[in-house]
Structure formats: C-alpha cells, structure tokens
Amino acid sequence: MVSVLLAIAGATLAPRVDPILEDLQHRAFLFFKNESHPETGLTKDRASNTKPDDFRVASIASTGFALVAYAIGVERGWMDRADARRRTLVTLRSINDLVEGERGWLYHFVDWETGKREWKCEASTIDTAILLAGVLASRQYWNDPEIDRLADRFAKRIDWQWALTDGGAKPDEKLIGHGWRPEEGFLGGRWSAQYSEEKMLYVMGCGLSDIRTDGWEAIGRTFHNYKGIEFITGGPLFIHQMSESFFDFRDKRDHLGIDYSVATRNAILANRQYCIDNPQGFEAYGPDFWGLSACDSPDGYRALGAPGWTEDNGTITPTSAVASVPFTPELAVSFAKHMRKAHPQAWGRYGFPNGYNPSRKWVGPDVIGIDLGMMMLAIENHRNGFVWRLTESHPAVQRGFRRLGFQKVPGSGKGPLRIGKAAVGG
User: Fold this and answer.
1) Which of 22, 132, 242, 371 is the most buried (most CB within 10 A)?
2) Is residue 129 part of a domain?
3) What is the secondary structure of 44-57 as a DSSP string?
C-alpha cells in the first residue's frame, strides 16, 4: 500500500538525519513499542531507563504519542505494517470503550490494563487533547475505514462546551478549563492566563466544535527580551514544543500578528543563552549543554525554565534540547553529540534520561513518554514534516486554524515575532 507520506508529501525517499538523531528517535520509538500494553494499547507514563520495571500507570497523553509512533515506525522500517495497524486498532478501541473519563475527556492517569483512574487524577483537557492530536494524525495516516470510524467516534464525543463553561455554570467564559474531578467538580485553572502548551486545545476545539473563538486572544502573552531575543515568556521549554509536535505554525500569522514558529525558536534561543550565561554557576552549562524544562530532578518533578520566568536547580531535560531540532537544527544536533560524548553516564536503553544534574552528580533513573514523544515527533518533522502534514490534512484542523484567524504568510518564519496589533499592544 502506498503510504500517506508519499500521498501527502509527493516525496520518493525521506531524507536522512544525523546518526545521533536516528538513534535517539529509534530508542524513543522502542519505548512506545515496548511500554504499551499488548491488549489495551495504553502506554506507560514513564519507564526505567536502565532495566525492565513493573510500572502499571499509563498516561493518555503518552498513548497519543504512541499512535503516531506506530506510523513513524512503519515509515522508518522499524515495525511491520500489519502489527502497527493492529496496535492502532487496539488502542482506539480502548480509548473509546475502556478508559474512564467524563463527557469525552479522559482521566490523565489510568491503569494500563484496566483503563481505570489512578491517583485520584483529573479528567484532563490538555492530556485528552494530546491524545486527540495523536488520534487525528493516526487517522490521516492509515486511510482505513475501521480506524476512521473509531477515530471519528472518539473525536466527536468530546464535549468542548462543557469544558469551556464548567458545565454551563460560566456561560461567558472564554478560556477552556483545566479539567474535572468527581470529588470536587471543575478545577479552578484555565488554559491559560499565562502562555503555555494550550495552542492545540484551541485549534482542535474550534475545528471540531462551534465553541467561541475569542478565547484565543484571551490567552496571556507576556513578551520578554533577553539579550536581543524577543520571545513569549513561558518558562519550561516543553510549553513551546508540545503543540508544535503535531501542528505546523511555520509561516503562519494569527489575527494578532504573531508567528508562533518564531516564538518557539526564540524561546529556545533565549533558554540556551541563559544556560550559556549561567548566572548561578551550575556545572556543565554552556553552548552545548542547555534545555530547561519540566522534568525529574534531585528535588522531585519540577517545572524548570528560564529566562523571563525562572526556576533553575542545575537540571536539564535532554529530550527538550533535542526536540528543538525543527527550529534550531544545528544547535540540537551539537547538543546531542556533546551530551552523548561528554556525559556517557546519562544514557540508557531509551537514550537520554528525563532529567540530568551534573552539579549534584544525579542522573534521572526514568524516561517519560510525553518527553520522548515530543523528541520523536520533532525529529520526524525535522526530517520531512511528516507529522505536521498528517495533522494539517485533517479537515477539522484546517477549520480550527481558519476560525482562529490564521493566514499563510510566506517568509514570516524569518521574523519578526509579532507585527501589527501584537507589536503595538506589546
């Protein structure tokens, strides 16, 4: 069967990437292949990077990345097509009929065998959105009637208006809520008073439903300049990379005049420059050792990031530095090569650990699915834009971009970050 890669891209052979990226991407793929339950398709939130483990908790967001991993595996020759299709169907059946949730929004963490809620977690809007993005991309890859049916069923049952208005209690609300727990009802937070990873929520919500569109403009955007680099303050690198794993913001500007691919690139450059400046004097920081993001650290899981919004304890997230590759390819490759050579202790069966702190001689024992997923998709998008093309080929995604006022502006990716209304307002 002719792959959708060829049908959409019109390509003949996918270009090669640097061998270090090939290795990292393959190891990330193996996480999704090995750490997804064979009977449910649900993918572990995390796994040990050194040995087999007995972890049982799956993340619905990690499961979304797994659906795309199977398509990438087929394209790269790492997975038999029939096995990838079988895994895709098993996963889609589970998220439709097994995994617990509320009004189409699934619980963040579930038992990977039973699909039942774990840790009294919330029915999460952002984690369901990550899963949904994987569902839409997977649907577009397979062009298979049964996969289409299951993917469409999952997408159509999500109640966007319920999540936006807290079940009708806030009819004038513009921003989508964080989620819901049976013990307390709707959570207090919204996406988002401060710029974060929510872009995918609004693109898909406005494409798959008729919710109001002015929430997009209501998202908090604080512009910051660090040594001549203008970016949108956000802190951890992942917030500039999560939506970008699936959605192509290159050479597009919204009705505010912002190019979010420039925002992402500049946030990466500012993050790296902060690590070069290294104001707290942490060990190893420099031009080839950077990447502050949410990760495991010696002090527990922390939302590390800088500049503009700074939390730094000397821990970097290697996968975030590598996931920068579509936007700063030379810097990402240089980081990966340096990291592999200079820090051999920070390496395991799935590649780099989730967090690494040389100042405290600490190597994170685990990897986390969503971080490996962002890196895996970023490498594929750097290679040929594969995941971006899949997602953007979905009619609902096209509608979402249109409703939010995005327009194609060739060359805007060269900058500036903002023009017109955004530049005046900032």
Assistant:
1) 371
2) yes
3) BSEEESSS-----E
Residue 191 in tokens: 């996406």
CA Rg, the chain, in Å?
20
Cβ atoms of residues 216 and 203 within 8 Å: no
Structural domain harbouring 352? 14-178+188-425
Asked whether residue 163 is domain-assigned, the answer is yes
SS (H, E, C) the chain: CCCHHHHHHCCCCCCCCCHHHHHHHHHHHHHHHHCECCCCCCEECEEECCCCCCCCEEEHHHHHHHHHHHHHHHHHCCCCHHHHHHHHHHHHHHHHHCCCEECCEEECEEECCCCCECCCCCEEHHHHHHHHHHHHHHHHHHCCHHHHHHHHHHHHCCCHHHHHHCCCCCCCCCCEECEEECCCEECCCEECCCCCCCHHHHHHHHHHCCCCCCHHHHCCCCEEEECCEEEECCCCHHHHCHHHHHCCCCCEECCCCECHHHHHHHHHHHHHHHHHHCCCCCCCCECCECCCCEECCCCCCEECECCCCCECCCCECHHHHHCCCCCCHHHHHHHHHHHHHHCCCCCECCECCCCEEHHHCEECCEEEHHHHHHHHHHHHHHHHCHHHHHHHCCHHHHHHHHHCCCEECCCHHHCCCECHHHHHHC
Q: Bridge-partner residues for 370, per DSSP?
A: none
- Give me the pLDDT at residue 10, please: 36
Give pLDDT tens digits for 261-279. Answer: 999 999 999 999 999 999 9
Element (H, E) at 181: strand 179-181
Name the residue with tokens 């024992």. Answer: 365
Q: What is the predicted pLDDT for the residue at 2?
A: 34
Q: What is the CATH number of the domain that holds 60?
A: 1.50.10.140
pLDDT band at 425 (very low <50, low <70, confident <90, very high): low
CA distances from 248 to 230, 252, 287, 382 (A): 21, 9, 27, 11
Q: Could you report the per-residue pLDDT of 86-142, keeping only the tens digit for each?
A: 999 999 999 999 999 999 999 999 999 999 999 999 999 999 999 999 999 999 999
pLDDT tens track for 347-402:
999 999 999 999 999 999 999 999 999 999 999 999 999 999 999 999 999 999 99
Domain count, the chain: 1
User: Considering the domain boundaries, does residue 70 fall inside one?
Assistant: yes
Query: What angle, rounded to 10 degrees, do the helices at 19-34 and 329-342 form?
Result: 80
Residue 183 lies in a domain: no
User: What letter would DSSP give residue 102?
Assistant: E
